Amino acid sequence: MSDGLWLVVGLGNPGPDYAGNRHNVGQMVLDELARRAGETFSARAIGGARAATAEARLGMLPGGVPGPRVVLAKPSTYMNVSGGPVAGLAQYYGVDADHVVVVHDEIDIPFADLRLKTGGGEGGHNGLRDITKALGTKDYVRVRVGVGRPPGRMEAADYVLRDFAAAERKELPWLIDAAADATELVVTQGLEKAQLTVHTKNA
């Protein structure tokens, strides 16, 4: 899985008011991946896609060889219209859906757990739904970062647009690091091997 360019996308909403929200954990993970690669994001539009991007090599292959080439992207649109930037970048760089990785929050997974999959439903996640529509397929890779279910009768939409709780913020650096590790595993070892590693840790 070392050949071919990958597009790795972190979902979220733009602007400082949303930066600490649960819904923005995907973009937090992308910031960590860029930091590891020693790259910074550029806000210039590429191929008409509204996104901040950085080109890098991600992870390491056996023998200490730098990992595959990737485009890291944080859409600068709101979450529910993420599809346009993702599809635009995929088309511009010639990246097929099976080499698109989307990192996103997932309320159906307990906080601090991770799950990897390709295809399947969007679970009510409007960002994923828009990406599926824009790409014309569900067959892209998802790094699903667990943020847990809303308490009591709180609406899911309100819950994900709130910042992480104080207790969660203590674990958040570990979660972001683990999600970045999982993303690197996907692009360096392939989805199945990455699933074996990540899902065993979270079992």
TrEMBL record:
Cellular component per GO, a single term: cytoplasm
Site label Discriminates between blocked and unblocked aminoacyl-tRNA, positions: 13
Pfam families for the chain: Pept_tRNA_hydro
Gene Ontology MF annotations: peptidyl-tRNA hydrolase activity; tRNA binding
Root EC class: hydrolase
Catalytic residues identified in the record: 23
PROSITE patterns registered for this protein in UniProt: PEPT_TRNA_HYDROL_1 (PS01195), PEPT_TRNA_HYDROL_2 (PS01196)
SUPFAM superfamilies assigned to the protein according to its UniProt record, in alphabetical order: Peptidyl-tRNA hydrolase-like
Gene Ontology biological process terms, A to Z: protein quality control for misfolded or incompletely synthesized proteins; rescue of stalled ribosome
Binding site for tRNA: 18, 78, 80, 126
KW Cytoplasm (keyword) present: yes
Location within or outside the cell: Cytoplasm
Keyword terms, alphabetized: Cytoplasm, Hydrolase, RNA-binding, tRNA-binding
Site (Stabilizes the basic form of H active site to accept a proton): 105
Enzyme Commission designation: 3.1.1.29
Known role: Catalyzes the release of premature peptidyl moieties from peptidyl-tRNA molecules trapped in stalled 50S ribosomal subunits, and thus maintains levels of free tRNAs and 50S ribosomes.
HAMAP family linked: Pept_tRNA_hydro_bact
Entries under NCBIfam families matching the protein: pth
Family: Belongs to the PTH family.
Binding partners and assembly: Monomer.
Name of this protein: Peptidyl-tRNA hydrolase
